[in-house]
Amino acid sequence: MNAVVLDRFGGPEELSFRTIPTPEVGENDVLVRVEYAGVGSWDAAEREGDYDGVFGVPSSFPYVLGWDAAGTIAAVGDGVDRFAVGDRVYAATTPVPRGGTYTEYAVVEAQHVAHLPERMPVAQAGALGWDALTALSGVDLLDLQPGATLMVFGASGGIGHLAVQIARHRRLRVLAVASGDDGVALARGLGADATADGRREDVVAAASAFAPEGLDAALVTVGGPTTEAALGTVKESGRIAWPYGVHPALSTSPRAAVSYYNGDRSSTAMDRLNAIIEAGGLQVHVDRTFPLAEARDAHLALREHYVGKLALRIA
Q: Which residues of the chain are modeled with pLDDT < 70?
């Protein structure tokens, strides 16, 4: 099968397009014929070797990146009864130990695969899984009642633009702090009640105008001084959701409690996500799509300004 692989960790130039063996399917796995795969900022960190050994398994080469995918089931393990060959699915996987999704065929544990809702185009679903589940877990963690005020900081990014939509589906009032005119336009188009450009506007003033008595909560997808200043507008009784991996880390403690978390990839969480999709409450904004053979260009694009997600077209 065709794949993009690493023979050693390093920069985008280490990504190589070539043929490798199709992976074997384990008892509790499915084999997905990948049509689209997401490209995330964490892919670049992994490409550099930052995740080497963190999964408890020694890294081996050739190493295939890619955490998100969508396509069709090509084979199922003997212990799998939720899926059949031909099912349309999306997945939230990890490259270790089975291999990633920058490839024509990917092996994924069945528990991290979900049927693709008819409302979700496969080109969007390829970049859906991890960011959407992280956004959903964050909104769940905050446990807000309809009408509560939520600031999504980084609202034009992968997690952020999905969190805006999930929050609006929950009937929350959303202040979206985005990046650039295109990011602000995206957040506004997705239903944010108010927006602010985190690069150019006074976010503290925007938050104070949006919730004069203080915000009920915040979901943070990017750290830094502007973030920390903005978090001062969250009520002392409020909550802040901070996914693990968001950097830079806080240098001071806000008055509201900060809860660090990982996205829930269970089949139950994926079912909840599908319910939101089927209700028309979610779409993935894919800024740019690259052919699989141009994965290097996709990784270079990670260094540039973009909104939403980047993706690879496999088939």
A: none
